[in-house]
Amino acid sequence: MLERVRRLFSRSARESELREHLERLRPKLPVPVFWLFGRTQSGKTSLIKYLTGAERAAIGKGFEPCTRFSSRFQFPSAEAPLITFLDTRGLDEPGYDSAEDLAQFGTEAHVVVVTVKAMDHGQENVLVNLRALRKENPARPVLLVLTCLHEAYPQQQHPTPYPFNADGERDAAGVPVPEGLTRSLTEQRERFGGLYDRVVAVDLTAGEEGFAEPEYGGEMLRAALLDLLPAALRQTLLTLKEAMSDLQDLYEQQALPYVVGYSTLAATAGTIPVPLLDLAILSGIQSRMVYHLAKLYGQPMDPKRFLELAGTLSGSIIFGQGLRELIKLVPYFGTVAGAVTCGAAAGATTFALGKAACYYYSSVHRGHVPRPEELKRYFNEQLPRAAAHWKRIASASEEGKGNGAVPSIAPRPENAR
Amino acid sequence: MSRWRIAVVAALLGGPFAVLVALGWYFLRLRWGIWTWWPLAGALALGYGLALYWHRQRRLLPLGEAPPPEHWTERDTLASQLIEDRIARTVKLNVNQLTDFEFYRQTTQDMAYELARFYHPSAQDPFSHLTAPEILAVAELVSHDLAELVNQYVPGGQRLSLGEWQQAQRWAKRLTDGYQLYTNVSWAVSALINPLAAASRYVASQVGLTAPVQMLQQDLLLWFYRQYVRQLGTYLIELNSGRLRVGATRYRQLLAARLPLPADANGDVPNGVPAVPQVTVTLLGQVKAGKSSVVNALLGERRARTDVLPTTSEVNRYELKSEGIPTKLVLQDTVGYGHAGPRADQLAATREAARQSDILLLVLHARNPARQADLTQLEDLEAFYQSRPDLKRTPLLTVLTHIDLLTPAMEWSPPYDWRHPVRPKEQNIQDAMAAVQKQLGVYAPVVVPVCAAEGKVFGVAEELLPLIVERLDEAHGVGMLRCLMAEADTGSARVVLRQLVKAAKQLLPVALESLTKRR
């Protein structure tokens, strides 16, 4: 055991092998890819911020150029992504050619999200390029997001409660909306007619703008995105939301997406029907997660600390996982059944381990190192809840549907402490 | 008055002084001795010395360091440097050269060739494109201007005939040759002919200073010669730029109509030219940038139609006459670009309006930083001016609208002092301005942040209008030049037609006559 852990830290051939496996794994991850399409400052970053909870500055830094006119943002990290955003930032630049982006993202993007400021009618370039996009793949859903509603009623609060329906129109029963906004929204809907599948009106603003409701229409946006995503991809978005709700601790808010990300990675690794292969990958993934979390919490990750943590928990993980590997050895039936259970178990254990790591680090942060039995108890609390959740996801993605109620894995405040 | 009468008057006027001199001499010699004359002689010597020194220090007559005409293009300014160089070279000329008619002819020829070469560097014969009326217009304009200058600066100049001038020359020569006895009478005569020269010479001769006299004379001649070079150069530039194709009379009319009228002008503006010079201000920008709102804010009333949807579908004109503005402003509200709505001809109208304006306001939405379409428009305009070196670049102001929507969006409590930002909004206004300058670079030297929304107007009267007024002179120049060139282009065809008709009218009877006679 000690030997193995040492090997993990030695960055030897083992490391590159792991990386190779992860490379092969990543395309199989159920990561929704949103292709953001719209003029500069039409609300793309606000949308990412709302969906991920990431900080604006972090989003800005996280974008990596991938084509001449576009860049990619993987949340929370490129290693274990949960959501990927592709941003066509060069839409208004001279010589923008959607063909280049189509070649790159054509098969990758699941939903095209067109952000359009409700009051900005200079959309010629967006229209021209969106038409090309739509023509290339008419089946890919397009969501039209009409943003910055407040520009129609400057220095006034939003009309509450949110009066727009699922078609971006004002509900007959809703509160009155400034007439200029209604007409402008209608104009935009007509302008983009035939080029979108769903439309929502939102106003996602930063706190300093001074609006009472900084996430105006956010729920409608999330619902529309879930509707448009292929069933198998809905889970990550839902999981993330579940996991993030009620989180008070700022550190945990930052850390949890990574935990979910690595758990999804582990779950996906677990579904590969090759016996005993994923066990090695799994421990690799888990140690990377712990290392990543240590960095987030600002803790030096030396082998001693790692052993302290791993020694307490790993016994139970490895033992359970080992048993399940045996199921995979049974031919035919075993492959399918084993993959499902193994994937779910890998995801669940990784999630519980991540949670325990967060618990460990936040305790260390507060100046006390948790006792092994304390840590173990916490881990055992988290595991069954996570197991139920991941099992559900695994079977849902296996059947290609499953938008039903997802068991909550959100930690209650007392658990988070 | 005959000569002896003048002699009598002079003797009567000068006699008492002579007696005083004699008495003084006698008295002083009696009392203190002859050495008392020395301080007086010293004062004279000092005066002589100072006259020489100050003469070398500066010209006695101002050359009139007038700024170049407002309508001159960059090319014209470069050409004018050639003239200034020539003027700078004319320091070492003697009186004989300056009074020689041949010398002026040679100068004219040299300058004509030099400037024609500058404007048409590759032409085999740089004069080949010039027409006779144009060349005559130069002659007319130069003569007219010099006549005005002489009237203005040479006392009695309007009565100075060529013969008299030569006579004055002769007299001055005799004087310097030593005709001292003749002095009193000759000065009285020359004073009638040329008071300025005579007066200065009289004073000089009375104290026996002949060198400053010659200098004064040369100064006057040199001044005249330089003025001649400058006026000629100016009109040669106008000639080579093709602006005299309209003819001397029309050229002067347009110049008078376009330039802001001086305060003491008697207002006799030629017929057919509007009495109040006007300046066209064109608002250019993306759709929904707030062009019509800025028009309304400038007018102080809601006259341009505004809406949440693109509204302006053609170029609209509004007149703005205000007490603070010395001229009439015509505001041109154009069709916004950047959305698929307007037809191609509407956008062409916008582009044409930009080219046909004296001041351009590029209107940008502070919250919509996608400005490629604006950059494209500016580059298009730049290409237009590159292809027309005979036109002058229109002064451009960048107006940043909707600053009330900048963060924090819920707050609007002007005035905002973005030059010394303290509040977050002030800082954000400054940042937005910097972003515009970064995006548009040299095209946006001046950015004016405004809010033009009804009831929340800020920055229009305080910032934008004064900046427009500052550019009025430049704008007059731009407009004047454009008018001239447009008229010159359309005029030439019309004139040829008119000449043909006229010729036909005269030839037809002759032809008919010859036909009938043959029968």
Task: Explain the overall architecture.
The complex is a heterodimer of chains A (417) and B (519). Chain A has 417 residues and is of the alpha/beta class. Chain A has helices at 2-9, 13-25, 44-52, 56-62, 98-105, 124-136, 179-191, 218-228, 231-244, 250-270, 277-296, 303-329, 333-365, 372-399, 413-416, and strands spanning 33-38, 64-65, 70-75, 83-88, 111-117, 142-147, 198-201, 203-204, 215-216. In chain A, the strands form 2 sheets. Chain A has a 7-stranded mixed sheet with strand order 2-3-4-1-5-6-7, with helices on both faces. In chain A, strands 8-9 form a two-stranded antiparallel sheet. In chain A, strand 3 and strand 4 form a beta hairpin. In chain A, helix 9 (231-244) runs antiparallel to helix 10, helix 11 runs antiparallel to helix 12 and helix 12 runs antiparallel to helix 13 (333-365). With 519 residues, chain B is of the alpha/beta class. Chain B has helices spanning 3-31, 37-57, 74-89, 95-98, 101-119, 132-153, 162-177, 183-193, 195-206, 211-240, 248-258, 291-299, 344-355, 372-387, 424-440, 460-470, 472-518; strands spanning 278-285, 316-320, 328-333, 359-365, 396-401, 447-449. In chain B, strands 2-3-1-4-5-6 form a 6-stranded mixed sheet, sandwiched between helices. In chain B, helix 14 links the parallel strand 4 and strand 5. In chain B, helix 3 (74-89) packs antiparallel against helix 5. Chain B is extended, with a radius of gyration of 33 Å. The A-B interface holds A 39-42, 91-94, 117, 119-125, 127, 148, 150-152, 154-155, 157, 180-181, 183-184, 187, 191, 205-206, 208-211 and B 286-288, 307-310, 336-341, 365, 367-373, 376, 402, 404-405, 407-412, 424, 453, 456.
